[in-house]
Design brief:
This protein is of the alpha/beta class and 146 residues long. It contains 4 helices and 6 strands.
Length: 146
Amino acid sequence: MDTSINVVLAFDFGMKRIGVAVGQTVTNSARPLVTIPAKEGIPELKALTKIIQQWKPDALVIGIPLNMDGTIQPITQHAKNFGIFLKQQFDLPVFEMDERLTTKAARERIFKEGGYKALQNGQVDQVAAQLILQNWLDQNSEQTKE
């Protein structure tokens, strides 16, 4: 992993909501942050800019939705376009990460911790972003050990 990368923001892309998580390469840990409303996959730019300015990330990670067999699905290109938008808008390195099963895992984790009511408050997207980021951190820390 590039040693100049310390703080990383990750995004669980969706057409109506985009979950955001923050993590650090030093501690190899991620945590959920916030969910940003989106219209047809376009996030509220003001909210997005505020998060970038607040956390000053060194890199961004975008969850790329794929079918279980690894093929693309209709939303895949929207997520890739979101990554291109972020790179152009904020001039930061953008990494793609396979996000298969992260939303399912996020729902299970939230339900286990707080029951059905906990699923109602919009945490799923940001916990999914946390899982995407944690997978990316784990994968990249393993590569640097080899």
